[in-house]
Design a protein that fits this description.
Layout lengths: L1 H5 L5 E5 L1 E2 L4 E2 L3 H9 L3 E5 L16 E5 L11 E5 L1 H8 L32 H17 L1 H21 L16 E5 L4 H12 L4 E2 L8 E5 L7 H15 L1
Parallel strand pairs: 1-4, 4-5
Antiparallel strand pairs: 2-3, 5-6, 7-9, 8-9
Helix pairs in contact: 4-5, 5-7, 6-7
Length: 241
């Protein structure tokens, strides 16, 4: 990172907080802080971590989330936070388009008990659903939600160890609290098929070269529940047996 601080021509850098195909939660704080000190805008994909674990937003210029995943709301909405530095870049850069530009949102306010006028028609039903999901998180308490995700993640990994499975991340310290990736070399697709056919349990495989070597168990949002994790791992134990 020394060369970046001393001499760079990067306008922005992107990073993924929770990398779901491998079940890795990246430790971003140090690199994001270094990028900010170097004047590089930081854009972080936190789609599958936001609402399930702490996100280092103090070093993020644009933090991207979504209505599904940890919020357990219908898919279709993007959530994002924008720093003052990022707004300055938006306002001084030719956007070239309206629909995908952030600029029309710059002065949009959402006052309580007053009509909201976004720059274009939104999916109102999805907004109400997201509001209900966020209310549930606030009612439970943010730290309690994070603790619940950590607890079920450990439960999932422990059951996996009992079955002789290894998690994909090299260190458990890198394991995500929202999804667990198990190594099942050459068997992921078949195990996935049998889980659904025999137990009505749906899990995911990985992507690319790891597609048949990694099996992913999601435990985020509504599914960060001990009983659901236990049901899934019982089914996996039966299939592997």
């Amino acid at each position: 990172m020394k060369s970046l601080v001393e001499d760079h021509d990067f306008a922005a850098a992107t990073a993924i907080h929770c990398e779901t195909p491998t079940g890795v939660l990246n430790d971003l704080e140090e690199i994001l802080a270094t990028l900010q000190d170097a004047g590089v805008l930081t854009i972080v994909d936190a789609v599958s971590s936001l609402g399930g674990t702490e996100v280092p937003v103090e070093h993020v210029d644009v933090c991207l989330g979504a209505s599904q995943k940890c919020f357990s709301s219908p898919p279709g909405l993007t959530t994002l936070s924008v720093s003052d530095r990022a707004w300055e870049k938006v306002e001084t850069t030719d956007q070239g388009t309206f629909y995908t530009s952030l600029e029309p949102w710059r002065d949009v306010e959402f006052p309580e008990d007053e009509p909201v006028h976004p720059p274009y028609t939104h999916s109102v039903s999805n907004l109400y659903a997201l509001e209900a999901s966020l209310d549930r998180i606030l009612d439970e308490g943010r730290e309690n939600v994070f603790d619940r995700h950590e607890s079920v993640a450990e439960q999932c990994r422990e059951r996996g160890r009992d079955l002789g499975l290894e998690i994909y991340p090299e260190s458990e310290a890198l394991a995500s609290p929202t999804v667990t990736a198990f190594r099942v070399e050459g068997r992921a697709t078949e195990v996935q098929r049998r889980l659904e056919a025999d137990h009505d349990v749906i899990v995911a495989t990985s992507l690319g070269d790891l597609a048949d070597d990694v099996l992913r168990v999601g435990h985020m949002g509504y599914n960060a529940d001990p009983d659901r994790v236990e049901q899934t791992m019982d089914a996996l134990a039966d299939v592997l047996d």
